[in-house]
Amino acid sequence: MDYGKRDTQRGPRVLKNPARCHSFSASGGYRPGPGGARELYLSIASGRRGGAAAFVTLNALRPASYLYGGILWTRGLLYRHGLLPTVRLPLPVVSVGNITLGGTGKTPLIEFLARFLTERGKKVAILSRGYAGTNGTSDEFMEFRERLPHVPFLLGKDRLASARTAMEEFHPQCLLLDDGFQHWGLARDLDIVVIDTLSPFGSGHLLPAGTLREPLSSLKRAGLFVLSRTNLCPPERLQDIKGHLLRLSSSTPIIETVHHPLYLEAMNGNRVEVSYLNGKKTFAFCGLGNPISFEKTLQSLGANVVGFKSFSDHHHYTPEECKKLTSEAIGLGAEAIVTTCKDRVKLVGAYSRALGRFAVANNTPLQDNDWPLPFFALRIEMRITRGQEALASALSRILPLSRPS
User: Fold this and answer.
1) Count of domains observed in the chain
2) Tell me, what's the pLDDT at 25?
Protein backbone atom coordinates (compact mmCIF):
# COMPACT_ATOMS: atom_id res chain seq x y z
CA MET A 1 0.00 0.00 0.00
CA ASP A 2 1.21 3.53 -0.80
CA TYR A 3 1.18 5.34 2.53
CA GLY A 4 2.69 8.54 1.20
CA LYS A 5 5.43 10.20 -0.78
CA ARG A 6 9.12 10.31 -0.04
CA ASP A 7 11.02 13.52 0.38
CA THR A 8 13.70 13.04 -2.27
CA GLN A 9 16.28 15.40 -0.81
CA ARG A 10 16.96 13.77 2.54
CA GLY A 11 16.02 10.88 4.79
CA PRO A 12 12.63 11.70 6.36
CA ARG A 13 9.30 10.86 4.80
CA VAL A 14 6.05 12.81 4.74
CA LEU A 15 2.72 10.99 4.73
CA LYS A 16 -0.28 12.22 2.78
CA ASN A 17 -3.13 14.07 4.48
CA PRO A 18 -1.19 15.55 7.39
CA ALA A 19 -3.04 17.46 10.07
CA ARG A 20 -4.30 20.86 9.11
CA CYS A 21 -2.38 23.82 10.46
CA HIS A 22 -4.27 26.14 12.78
CA SER A 23 -2.94 29.68 12.35
CA PHE A 24 -4.06 32.86 14.06
CA SER A 25 -2.23 35.91 12.86
CA ALA A 26 -1.61 37.83 16.03
CA SER A 27 0.47 39.16 18.77
CA GLY A 28 -0.56 36.80 21.45
CA GLY A 29 -1.66 36.08 24.92
CA TYR A 30 0.08 38.05 27.54
CA ARG A 31 1.14 40.57 24.87
CA PRO A 32 -2.29 41.37 23.39
CA GLY A 33 -2.49 42.24 19.73
CA PRO A 34 -5.09 42.30 16.96
CA GLY A 35 -6.67 38.94 16.18
CA GLY A 36 -5.01 36.90 18.92
CA ALA A 37 -8.10 34.82 19.69
CA ARG A 38 -6.28 31.57 20.44
CA GLU A 39 -3.61 33.23 22.56
CA LEU A 40 -6.23 35.24 24.44
CA TYR A 41 -8.12 32.03 25.17
CA LEU A 42 -4.97 30.25 26.36
CA SER A 43 -4.07 33.13 28.67
CA ILE A 44 -7.53 32.88 30.28
CA ALA A 45 -7.71 29.07 30.41
CA SER A 46 -4.22 28.77 31.90
CA GLY A 47 -4.97 31.32 34.61
CA ARG A 48 -2.44 33.90 33.37
CA ARG A 49 -5.19 36.45 32.71
CA GLY A 50 -7.63 37.32 35.48
CA GLY A 51 -10.46 39.78 35.91
CA ALA A 52 -14.23 39.70 35.67
CA ALA A 53 -14.31 38.83 31.97
CA ALA A 54 -12.00 35.86 32.48
CA PHE A 55 -14.08 34.68 35.47
CA VAL A 56 -17.32 34.81 33.46
CA THR A 57 -15.70 33.07 30.48
CA LEU A 58 -14.31 30.19 32.54
CA ASN A 59 -17.59 29.61 34.36
CA ALA A 60 -19.45 29.58 31.05
CA LEU A 61 -17.03 26.95 29.73
CA ARG A 62 -17.10 24.71 32.81
CA PRO A 63 -20.11 22.57 31.71
CA ALA A 64 -18.25 21.79 28.49
CA SER A 65 -15.27 20.66 30.58
CA TYR A 66 -17.50 18.21 32.47
CA LEU A 67 -18.78 16.87 29.15
CA TYR A 68 -15.22 16.55 27.82
CA GLY A 69 -14.19 14.72 31.00
CA GLY A 70 -17.05 12.27 30.54
CA ILE A 71 -16.00 11.60 26.96
CA LEU A 72 -12.41 10.96 28.09
CA TRP A 73 -13.58 8.56 30.82
CA THR A 74 -15.77 6.63 28.38
CA ARG A 75 -13.03 6.45 25.77
CA GLY A 76 -10.50 5.18 28.32
CA LEU A 77 -12.98 2.57 29.55
CA LEU A 78 -13.56 1.28 26.01
CA TYR A 79 -9.82 0.94 25.39
CA ARG A 80 -9.14 -0.71 28.75
CA HIS A 81 -11.83 -3.35 28.13
CA GLY A 82 -10.75 -4.02 24.54
CA LEU A 83 -13.87 -2.58 22.94
CA LEU A 84 -11.63 -0.16 21.06
CA PRO A 85 -8.48 -1.80 19.66
CA THR A 86 -4.93 -1.06 20.81
CA VAL A 87 -2.30 -2.40 18.41
CA ARG A 88 1.02 -3.67 19.77
CA LEU A 89 3.90 -3.56 17.31
CA PRO A 90 6.80 -6.03 17.16
CA LEU A 91 9.31 -3.37 18.23
CA PRO A 92 9.60 -0.96 21.17
CA VAL A 93 7.53 2.24 21.02
CA VAL A 94 8.50 5.22 23.19
CA SER A 95 5.88 7.96 23.51
CA VAL A 96 6.74 11.57 24.34
CA GLY A 97 3.65 13.53 25.33
CA ASN A 98 2.17 16.03 27.72
CA ILE A 99 -1.02 16.67 29.64
CA THR A 100 -1.57 20.37 28.93
CA LEU A 101 -2.08 22.58 25.89
CA GLY A 102 0.88 24.64 24.83
CA GLY A 103 4.55 23.93 24.28
CA THR A 104 6.17 21.88 27.02
CA GLY A 105 9.39 20.86 25.28
CA LYS A 106 8.39 17.67 23.48
CA THR A 107 10.35 18.44 20.30
CA PRO A 108 13.73 19.01 22.01
CA LEU A 109 13.20 15.81 24.00
CA ILE A 110 12.38 13.82 20.85
CA GLU A 111 15.61 15.13 19.32
CA PHE A 112 17.54 14.24 22.49
CA LEU A 113 16.14 10.70 22.51
CA ALA A 114 16.84 10.20 18.80
CA ARG A 115 20.48 11.20 19.32
CA PHE A 116 20.75 9.22 22.56
CA LEU A 117 19.55 6.01 20.90
CA THR A 118 21.43 6.54 17.63
CA GLU A 119 24.71 7.07 19.50
CA ARG A 120 24.08 3.73 21.21
CA GLY A 121 23.73 1.84 17.97
CA LYS A 122 19.95 1.88 17.51
CA LYS A 123 18.02 2.80 14.37
CA VAL A 124 15.02 4.96 15.22
CA ALA A 125 12.12 6.54 13.36
CA ILE A 126 9.91 9.40 14.54
CA LEU A 127 6.12 9.35 14.16
CA SER A 128 4.30 12.68 14.37
CA ARG A 129 0.76 13.83 13.81
CA GLY A 130 2.17 17.21 12.87
CA TYR A 131 0.73 20.51 11.77
CA ALA A 132 0.93 21.05 8.04
CA GLY A 133 2.25 24.17 6.41
CA THR A 134 1.64 25.53 2.99
CA ASN A 135 3.99 22.96 1.45
CA GLY A 136 2.34 19.99 3.19
CA THR A 137 5.07 19.55 5.78
CA SER A 138 5.33 20.71 9.38
CA ASP A 139 7.75 22.97 11.19
CA GLU A 140 8.91 19.96 13.23
CA PHE A 141 9.63 18.06 10.01
CA MET A 142 11.69 20.91 8.60
CA GLU A 143 13.58 21.34 11.86
CA PHE A 144 14.31 17.63 12.21
CA ARG A 145 15.43 17.48 8.58
CA GLU A 146 18.06 20.10 9.43
CA ARG A 147 19.16 18.58 12.72
CA LEU A 148 18.70 14.83 12.13
CA PRO A 149 18.85 14.29 8.36
CA HIS A 150 19.41 10.53 8.66
CA VAL A 151 16.50 9.83 11.03
CA PRO A 152 13.20 9.01 9.26
CA PHE A 153 10.38 11.36 10.25
CA LEU A 154 6.88 10.24 9.31
CA LEU A 155 4.07 12.77 9.37
CA GLY A 156 0.38 11.85 9.42
CA LYS A 157 -2.77 11.60 11.52
CA ASP A 158 -2.79 7.79 11.30
CA ARG A 159 0.17 6.87 13.49
CA LEU A 160 -0.40 3.14 12.90
CA ALA A 161 -0.07 3.64 9.14
CA SER A 162 3.07 5.70 9.78
CA ALA A 163 4.49 2.94 11.98
CA ARG A 164 3.86 0.28 9.34
CA THR A 165 5.51 2.43 6.69
CA ALA A 166 8.52 2.96 8.93
CA MET A 167 8.88 -0.78 9.55
CA GLU A 168 8.49 -1.64 5.85
CA GLU A 169 10.86 0.97 4.47
CA PHE A 170 13.34 1.97 7.19
CA HIS A 171 13.50 -1.08 9.49
CA PRO A 172 13.96 0.84 12.76
CA GLN A 173 14.68 -0.85 16.07
CA CYS A 174 12.60 1.69 18.01
CA LEU A 175 9.79 4.12 17.23
CA LEU A 176 9.53 7.54 18.89
CA LEU A 177 5.89 8.62 19.07
CA ASP A 178 5.56 12.41 19.20
CA ASP A 179 2.61 13.72 21.25
CA GLY A 180 1.43 10.19 22.01
CA PHE A 181 0.18 10.27 25.61
CA GLN A 182 -3.46 10.57 24.52
CA HIS A 183 -3.04 8.20 21.55
CA TRP A 184 -4.44 4.92 22.94
CA GLY A 185 -4.65 3.14 19.59
CA LEU A 186 -0.93 2.33 19.53
CA ALA A 187 0.55 0.45 22.49
CA ARG A 188 3.68 1.92 24.05
CA ASP A 189 6.52 0.32 25.94
CA LEU A 190 7.41 3.59 27.66
CA ASP A 191 5.26 6.68 28.21
CA ILE A 192 7.31 9.82 28.86
CA VAL A 193 5.34 12.88 29.95
CA VAL A 194 6.96 16.32 29.61
CA ILE A 195 5.91 18.92 32.16
CA ASP A 196 6.82 22.56 31.66
CA THR A 197 7.85 23.93 35.04
CA LEU A 198 6.72 27.42 33.99
CA SER A 199 3.13 26.19 33.61
CA PRO A 200 2.99 22.61 34.88
CA PHE A 201 -0.73 21.94 35.33
CA GLY A 202 -2.44 25.01 33.90
CA SER A 203 -5.38 26.13 36.01
CA GLY A 204 -6.13 22.56 37.09
CA HIS A 205 -9.26 22.32 34.93
CA LEU A 206 -9.96 20.25 31.83
CA LEU A 207 -10.48 21.77 28.41
CA PRO A 208 -12.07 24.10 27.51
CA ALA A 209 -12.30 25.83 30.93
CA GLY A 210 -8.65 24.95 31.53
CA THR A 211 -5.64 23.69 29.62
CA LEU A 212 -5.59 20.08 30.86
CA ARG A 213 -5.99 17.54 28.07
CA GLU A 214 -6.66 14.82 30.67
CA PRO A 215 -7.27 14.75 34.43
CA LEU A 216 -4.12 14.91 36.53
CA SER A 217 -4.86 11.37 37.73
CA SER A 218 -3.94 10.21 34.20
CA LEU A 219 -0.31 10.92 35.04
CA LYS A 220 -0.30 7.56 36.82
CA ARG A 221 0.09 6.00 33.35
CA ALA A 222 3.45 7.70 32.86
CA GLY A 223 6.67 5.73 33.01
CA LEU A 224 8.86 8.83 33.31
CA PHE A 225 8.27 12.49 34.12
CA VAL A 226 10.55 14.99 32.37
CA LEU A 227 10.54 18.48 33.86
CA SER A 228 11.55 21.08 31.28
CA ARG A 229 13.08 24.55 31.68
CA THR A 230 13.95 23.94 35.33
CA ASN A 231 16.59 26.69 35.18
CA LEU A 232 13.81 29.26 34.62
CA CYS A 233 11.73 27.99 37.55
CA PRO A 234 12.27 29.25 41.14
CA PRO A 235 13.72 26.44 43.32
CA GLU A 236 10.80 26.44 45.77
CA ARG A 237 8.33 26.21 42.88
CA LEU A 238 10.30 23.32 41.41
CA GLN A 239 10.10 21.44 44.70
CA ASP A 240 6.34 22.01 44.84
CA ILE A 241 5.93 20.54 41.35
CA LYS A 242 8.03 17.49 42.20
CA GLY A 243 6.09 16.98 45.42
CA HIS A 244 2.79 17.11 43.55
CA LEU A 245 4.02 14.52 41.04
CA LEU A 246 5.25 12.23 43.81
CA ARG A 247 1.83 12.37 45.45
CA LEU A 248 0.21 11.43 42.13
CA SER A 249 2.65 8.63 41.28
CA SER A 250 5.34 7.98 43.87
CA SER A 251 7.13 5.28 41.85
CA THR A 252 7.58 7.26 38.63
CA PRO A 253 11.12 8.66 38.18
CA ILE A 254 11.46 12.42 37.71
CA ILE A 255 14.06 13.78 35.29
CA GLU A 256 15.09 17.44 35.32
CA THR A 257 16.15 19.21 32.13
CA VAL A 258 17.05 22.65 30.83
CA HIS A 259 16.82 24.22 27.40
CA HIS A 260 20.46 25.13 26.96
CA PRO A 261 21.24 27.98 24.49
CA LEU A 262 23.99 26.80 22.13
CA TYR A 263 24.55 29.64 19.68
CA LEU A 264 22.88 32.19 17.43
CA GLU A 265 22.46 31.17 13.82
CA ALA A 266 22.18 33.69 10.99
CA MET A 267 20.02 33.01 7.96
CA ASN A 268 23.15 32.12 5.95
CA GLY A 269 24.13 29.53 8.55
CA ASN A 270 26.90 31.51 10.25
CA ARG A 271 27.12 30.97 14.00
CA VAL A 272 27.60 33.64 16.65
CA GLU A 273 28.20 33.20 20.38
CA VAL A 274 25.12 33.80 22.55
CA SER A 275 27.15 36.38 24.50
CA TYR A 276 26.55 38.67 21.50
CA LEU A 277 23.10 39.44 22.95
CA ASN A 278 24.40 40.61 26.32
CA GLY A 279 23.26 44.23 26.67
CA LYS A 280 21.93 44.37 23.09
CA LYS A 281 18.57 45.99 22.37
CA THR A 282 16.76 42.97 20.99
CA PHE A 283 13.46 42.54 19.19
CA ALA A 284 12.16 38.97 19.40
CA PHE A 285 9.22 37.03 18.05
CA CYS A 286 8.11 33.40 17.96
CA GLY A 287 5.25 31.02 17.24
CA LEU A 288 5.44 28.67 20.21
CA GLY A 289 3.01 27.00 22.54
CA ASN A 290 4.77 28.73 25.45
CA PRO A 291 6.24 32.04 24.21
CA ILE A 292 7.03 33.26 27.73
CA SER A 293 9.83 30.71 27.98
CA PHE A 294 11.57 32.12 24.90
CA GLU A 295 11.50 35.67 26.24
CA LYS A 296 12.80 34.48 29.62
CA THR A 297 15.64 32.62 27.91
CA LEU A 298 16.70 35.75 26.01
CA GLN A 299 16.62 37.78 29.21
CA SER A 300 18.74 35.14 30.94
CA LEU A 301 21.38 35.75 28.24
CA GLY A 302 21.45 39.46 29.10
CA ALA A 303 19.42 40.65 26.12
CA ASN A 304 17.54 43.93 26.55
CA VAL A 305 14.24 42.84 25.00
CA VAL A 306 12.74 46.09 23.70
CA GLY A 307 9.95 44.35 21.80
CA PHE A 308 8.40 40.89 21.76
CA LYS A 309 5.68 39.42 19.54
CA SER A 310 4.11 36.01 19.97
CA PHE A 311 2.16 34.18 17.29
CA SER A 312 0.15 31.00 17.60
CA ASP A 313 1.99 27.69 17.76
CA HIS A 314 2.98 26.40 14.29
CA HIS A 315 2.29 29.82 12.74
CA HIS A 316 3.40 30.26 9.12
CA TYR A 317 4.59 33.75 8.31
CA THR A 318 3.67 35.92 5.35
CA PRO A 319 6.00 38.45 3.72
CA GLU A 320 3.69 41.21 5.00
CA GLU A 321 4.10 40.03 8.60
CA CYS A 322 7.87 39.85 8.19
CA LYS A 323 7.97 43.36 6.80
CA LYS A 324 5.87 44.64 9.70
CA LEU A 325 8.07 42.88 12.27
CA THR A 326 11.21 44.39 10.77
CA SER A 327 9.72 47.89 10.67
CA GLU A 328 8.65 47.59 14.31
CA ALA A 329 12.09 46.40 15.37
CA ILE A 330 13.76 49.35 13.66
CA GLY A 331 11.21 51.74 15.17
CA LEU A 332 12.02 50.47 18.67
CA GLY A 333 15.73 51.02 18.15
CA ALA A 334 16.56 47.33 18.20
CA GLU A 335 20.11 46.26 17.41
CA ALA A 336 19.17 42.69 16.54
CA ILE A 337 16.16 40.50 15.73
CA VAL A 338 15.97 37.03 17.27
CA THR A 339 13.54 34.17 16.76
CA THR A 340 13.57 30.41 17.36
CA CYS A 341 14.95 27.71 15.07
CA LYS A 342 11.43 26.29 14.85
CA ASP A 343 10.32 29.62 13.35
CA ARG A 344 13.47 30.11 11.28
CA VAL A 345 12.79 27.13 9.03
CA LYS A 346 9.50 28.74 7.96
CA LEU A 347 10.93 32.22 7.46
CA VAL A 348 13.64 32.05 4.81
CA GLY A 349 11.50 32.61 1.73
CA ALA A 350 8.98 34.96 3.34
CA TYR A 351 11.65 37.14 4.92
CA SER A 352 13.71 37.37 1.72
CA ARG A 353 10.72 38.59 -0.29
CA ALA A 354 9.53 40.96 2.42
CA LEU A 355 12.88 42.56 3.12
CA GLY A 356 13.68 43.04 -0.53
CA ARG A 357 10.53 45.15 -0.88
CA PHE A 358 11.25 46.82 2.47
CA ALA A 359 14.68 48.00 1.33
CA VAL A 360 13.35 49.49 -1.91
CA ALA A 361 10.38 51.22 -0.24
CA ASN A 362 12.44 52.76 2.56
CA ASN A 363 15.66 53.43 0.65
CA THR A 364 17.45 51.47 3.38
CA PRO A 365 20.96 50.20 2.69
CA LEU A 366 21.05 46.47 3.39
CA GLN A 367 23.70 45.02 5.67
CA ASP A 368 24.67 41.72 7.30
CA ASN A 369 23.85 39.47 4.37
CA ASP A 370 21.01 41.71 3.14
CA TRP A 371 19.13 42.09 6.43
CA PRO A 372 18.23 45.60 7.67
CA LEU A 373 19.22 44.39 11.16
CA PRO A 374 21.33 41.45 12.34
CA PHE A 375 18.87 38.57 12.31
CA PHE A 376 19.39 35.32 14.24
CA ALA A 377 17.68 32.16 15.37
CA LEU A 378 18.57 30.95 18.85
CA ARG A 379 19.67 27.32 18.73
CA ILE A 380 18.91 25.40 21.92
CA GLU A 381 19.21 21.80 23.00
CA MET A 382 17.69 19.89 25.87
CA ARG A 383 20.16 18.81 28.54
CA ILE A 384 19.47 16.57 31.49
CA THR A 385 20.63 18.08 34.77
CA ARG A 386 19.33 15.33 37.04
CA GLY A 387 18.09 11.80 36.38
CA GLN A 388 19.93 10.65 33.24
CA GLU A 389 20.55 7.27 34.89
CA ALA A 390 16.79 6.81 35.30
CA LEU A 391 16.25 7.56 31.61
CA ALA A 392 18.98 5.16 30.50
CA SER A 393 17.61 2.47 32.81
CA ALA A 394 14.05 2.86 31.50
CA LEU A 395 15.22 2.65 27.88
CA SER A 396 17.51 -0.32 28.60
CA ARG A 397 14.56 -2.29 29.97
CA ILE A 398 12.82 -2.18 26.60
CA LEU A 399 15.82 -1.97 24.26
CA PRO A 400 19.35 -3.31 24.88
CA LEU A 401 21.78 -0.41 24.50
CA SER A 402 25.45 -0.46 23.59
CA ARG A 403 28.02 2.08 24.77
CA PRO A 404 27.79 5.54 23.15
CA SER A 405 29.75 5.76 19.92
Assistant:
1) 2
2) 26
Is the separation of the CB atoms in 228 and 382 below 8 Å? yes
Any residues with CB less than 8 A from the CB of 272 and at least 6 apart, and which? 263, 264, 265, 266, 376
Beta bridge partners of 14: 5, 155
For residue 1, give every residue at least 6 positions away whose Cβ sits within 8 Å of its Cβ, in sequence order, or none: none
Mean pLDDT of 257-283: 95
Q: Measure the CA–CA gap between 230 and 286, rounded to whole angstroms.
A: 21
265-269 contacts at long range (C-beta below 8 A, 24 or more positions apart): 265/341, 265/344, 265/376, 265/377, 265/378, 265/379, 266/368, 266/369, 266/374, 266/375, 266/376, 267/344, 267/347, 267/348, 267/351, 267/369, 267/371, 267/375, 268/369
Q: Residue 380 carries which side chain, given as an amino acid letter?
A: I
Cβ 159 vs Cβ 185: under 8 Å: yes
- 248 & 265 share domain: no
Task: Check pLDDT > 60 for residue 180.
Answer: yes
Which alpha helices (DSSP H) does 221-365 contain, by range? 235-248, 291-300, 319-331, 341-344, 348-362
Does some domain include residue 311? Answer: yes
Partner residues linked to 207 by β-bridges: none
Where residue 375 sits, what CATH number does that domain have?
3.40.50
Domain ranges, residue 230: 4-23+81-253+387-398
Whole-number pLDDT of residue 353 = 54
382 and 108 Cβ atoms separated by less than 8 Å: yes
Distance, CA of 191 to CA of 50 (rounded, Å): 34
Q: 326-337 b/e with 16+ CB inside 10 Å = b? A: bebbbeeebbbb
Rounded distance between C-alpha atoms, residue 234 and residue 197, angstroms: 9
63 within a domain of the structure (yes/no): no
- One domain, residues 374 and 265: yes
* Separation CA 171–CA 162 (nearest Å): 12
